[in-house]
Design a protein that fits this description.
Radius of gyration: 20 Å
CATH topology of one domain: PH-domain like
Order of helices and strands: EHHEEEEEEEHHH
Number of helices: 5
Distance between the termini: 36 Å
CATH class of one domain: Mainly Beta
Helix content: 25-40%
């Protein structure tokens, strides 16, 4: 995976860039940054790669993501916490220090890696307590299992849910969702014919 805005920056340079980025943002958005609750260095993970950035959460329930520099992905994300449908703790590079944030008005999610599990927990707990429109059944296994058994959701939707709660994401190529083969002819006694398509 290619890592953007990371190769030429040491930790000291990143710290200085974050301070500069915050100050630049402060000059144009003084009202927002006066109300800061959380300011964290993060990496935004997508299929294209990683980008270092700054995650800001304000008292007026706004979440802001700014990339540090020359990132090829989205320049700036700003959204109200009320637009968040669900939040999951995720594993990234075999460490549980990431969050995936799902939104009501978008099909894509926002996948963010934090510096440590403790920082992830602080942000996760804050978001859980301040996102007023969270779907209460978003990660409820029994609920989705019941929907699937009653045929209220398709096999595909159920498999998407199972992949989601297993820390698999369309944003992370190392943990991309998996889907089993579906055999259409399974009544023969000798061998299965996997080439039959219906």
């Amino acid at each position: 995976m290619k890592e953007f805005a990371d190769e030429e920056y040491t930790e000291d340079k990143c710290e200085k860039l974050i301070d500069t980025l915050t100050m630049d943002y402060y000059k144009s958005h003084k009202d927002i940054l006066k109300n800061l609750v959380i300011k964290q260095r993060v990496k935004r993970i997508t299929v294209v790669g990683e980008e270092r950035g700054l995650l800001l959460i304000t008292r007026d329930n706004t979440m802001i993501y700014n990339p540090i520099s020359n990132a090829p992905l989205i320049d700036h994300i700003e959204l109200p916490l009320s637009s968040i449908k669900g939040i999951l703790k995720m594993r990234y590079m075999f460490k549980y220090k990431a969050l995936e944030i799902f939104l009501y008005n978008q099909s894509n999610s926002i996948y963010i890696e934090f510096e440590s599990e403790s920082v992830q927990k602080i942000v996760f707990d804050y978001l859980l307590s301040h996102c007023k429109n969270l779907n209460p059944y978003f990660a409820d296994v029994e609920y989705y299992c019941r929907l699937w058994i009653e045929r209220k959701i398709s096999n595909f939707d159920y498999l998407l849910f199972i992949n989601r709660i297993a820390s698999r994401s369309f944003n992370d190529l190392s943990q991309y969702p998996v889907f089993p083969w579906v055999l259409s002819e399974y009544y023969t006694n000798s061998t299965f014919n996997i080439n039959v398509s219906y």
